[in-house]
Amino acid sequence: xxxxxxxxxxxxxxxxxxxxxxxxxxxxxxxxxxxxxxxxxxxxxxxxxxxxxxxxxxxxxxxxxxxxxxxxxxxxxxxxxxxxxxxxxxxxxxxxxxxxxxxxxxxxxxxxxxxxxxxxxxxxxxxxxxxxxxxxxxxxxxxxxxxxxxxxxxxxxxxxxxxxxxxxxxxxxxxxxxxxxxxxxxxxxxxxxxxxxxxxxxxxxxxxxxxxxxxxxxxxxxxxxxxxxxxxxxxxxxxxxxxxxxxxxxxxxxxxxxxxxxxxxxxxxxxxxxxxxxxxxxxxxxxxxxxxxxxxxxxxxxxxxxxxxxxxxxxxxxxxxxxxxxxxxxxxxxxxxxxxxxxxxxxxxxxxxxxxxxxxxxxxxxxxxx
Length: 370
Ligand SMILES: [Zn+2]
Ligand SMILES: [Zn+2]
Fold this sequence. Notes:
Mean pLDDT: 97
Low-confidence stretches: none
Bound molecules: zinc ion
Strand content: 25-35%
Number of strands: 19
Largest sheet: 7 strands, mixed
């Protein structure tokens, strides 16, 4: 079978031939991969910033945002059947008995760092024609989501973030009055930093919960991302025309900030505008650059005097994937055009170089694998 792989030792990227994986245990499932999304992580692996092949191998098959179809199941598989569409999870638990997170199937909170990740760290990824894995990492998807289900994995970032917000905010009376026809966040205001796929999917999740949602990003209007946001029902503000102060004045008390740029300067400038009882979610992973100046006195005063919480979030558990599938289905039915317009191109495997090392363009580009 064909797969897209990097060879970190000699900095090669290409389509390679690999033996088709086979079922190895009675709970294994084999998928014929339909497509895989390209994201910043894949591009960073292809810039050789990180990415580790499986032990004893030179090459790492990349790809972690994917959709496959079940073609074979082991004798003891009960979660999925042949013909089902499936989105596989990315992270696999570490082997240590003392890692209570991994031993509780919450490897997204692994304590030891010895987890593996398909397509990123010590396990082959999903930009391959076939994969095999245990059924416990397979999330079945309704057949009518075939055209958008590749967005399930990137949506888990917002889903996990928002689930934690609801947990964290149980520490105070943060709930909104019950209003028929309104979701539970209808009295809250949220700002999303960044209008890439993570930001757009985050905005969709927040609007779905009825947050009054503002998105702040670089590009001036009009642009395709601002148009998607208009369809979704979020308000777009360009940094070209609005300094952060103007945005903050427009919004009022900011209850939630969802960072989706990986730009620390912008994030820490924005933290200063977080409101009373507000929550700030970091999802981006910046590269290490020169230190930037931050007004730590102001930030610390606000954190204390405004009861603020700042947290970071990575990866996702099975329940997060299930929430992501459920919500993407809701988004697709409510806003089919907006959801479909997030996928800006579908390309054959042969086009991988442009997508992985060329200038990044569009919103979410997808590689077709079969
Ligand atoms: Zn990704
Ligand atoms: Zn662990």
